[in-house]
Amino acid sequence: MIDLEAALTDLADHLDHPAGDDLAAAVRRRISAPEPRRAPSRSRTLLVLAAAIVVILGALLAIAPARRAIADWLGIGAVEVVRTEHPLPPGSSALTVPGALDAPPSGAVTRRLAAARKHVAFTIAEPHGAAVGALLGVDSDPRVPGGLVALRYTRFTLVEIATARTGPTVGKFIDPEARIESVTVAGRPGLWITGAHQIGYLNRAGNVETETVRRSGPVLLWTHGDVTYRIEGIPRLAAAQAIAATIR
Amino acid sequence: MDRRRDEELVTAAREGDVDAFAVLVERYRQPALRLAYGIAGDEAEDAVQDGFVKAFRSLDGFRTDAAFRPWLFTIVANEARNRRRSWSRRSKLALQVREQPQPTGAAADDVAAQHDQRRQLLDVVARLPDRHREVVSLRYFAGLSESETAEALSCPIGTVKSRLSRALNQLRTALGEEVAL
Question: Is A12 in the B-facing interface, judged by CB distances under 8 Å?
């Protein structure tokens, strides 16, 4: 009788997989260049539209043991806002960035910021002024198309998301008690959301990162160019708008 | 051959040293391809390429006190899994054993018999449920230890052991007495 484990180990050396001779060169080319933004195509548009439906259905299933109807829709930039008819269940309040692995125990924030700049398809902007405080951490998620970066300051977190031309990449699910106000942020339209809401992300494969659905505090959302911005952690709209105005 | 340890290469790559990362690509190219092939068949090369690129772009999140290989293979396995999921789950996974030059003389029969045996084994591996084929691919095709496989799957080692045990039993059952494994 042959040892099955040994047979499988032997089989590994005889698989007819692609040789991958050009792999190192191809990887080198891709990591040496800034991440390209894909031009929208019909098939990709359909894919993203389908994925947007999946994110909503997926998240509703994830957060709703009972049936929830969608009451209304709103959206801005990379973010689609969906209101549900019933209160959301308690969720994690921890601010996490999908795909971000544990931060190293020590490491210069500036170095992480420099590295994050290479991982996103847009120019990372930063807030300025005395009210901003120290930059405590930088997380980036290359799985979000075009990239996502979160800058963690003492009092708030600024999240910058590439705005896909083909549709939203972030789903925000709010309950009936949450309020949404249309506001102006540095002269541009934005949304101020207060009350319970949860956030889920679509990754590049169009899959919902349901594990990142979490409870979130007041949020100011707006877009500028190809980037959707989110400030989280500032309880008052005017203070959040003031910080937003310093971002460049 | 570059003799620097993974940790040194990762540290250099995190500083933007593309050459250092290319050494890691060469070092793990073959087991990564075997792993991805076991999960996603002909999509393996694309999955591995995307996996390496994503690994490079996620290096800042990699804990330097952790082992690089299982971390990398987690990403590659995810890429391969996503590609597998993107086609119809009902589509059959076609895996092939590499053809070898046929020797002449007495050895020819032995080589042909070995080839058939490998082909039969791979056919039943291809029919395993995705979850079981994935653990088999990590453990035997990529050559991870059981604890590294547990790390790559983010599950307890006991889960890996039980999944492997079930997978091996399924393989034995599927093979039956055909090849008397």
Answer: yes
pTM: 0.52
Task: Tally Cβ neighbours within 10 Å of residue B38.
Answer: 31
Contacting A residues, span 17-76, partner chain B, CB-CB under 8 Å: 17-18, 20, 23-24, 26-28, 30-32, 35
Q: Is B165 on the interface with A (CB under 8 A)?
A: no
How is the beta sheet containing A170-174 ordered, strand by strand? Answer: A70-76, A79-84, A170-174, A197-202, A208-216
Final residue in a domain of this structure, among B55, B87, B119: B87
Q: What is the pLDDT of residues A139-185, one digit of tens each?
A: 877 666 777 888 888 888 888 888 765 455 555 555 566 677 778 88
Residues 6+ apart with CB under 8 A from A106: none
Domain holding B83: CATH number? 1.10.1740.10
Q: Are B142 and A17 spatial neighbours (Cβ–Cβ below 8 Å)?
A: no
**Which of 57-76 (B) contact A at CB < 8 A?**
57-64
Q: Which range marks the domain in which residue B23 is found?
A: 1-87
Contact predicate A162/A227, CB 8 Å: yes
Is residue A34 a part of any domain in this protein?
no
How many independent structural domains does chain B possess?
2
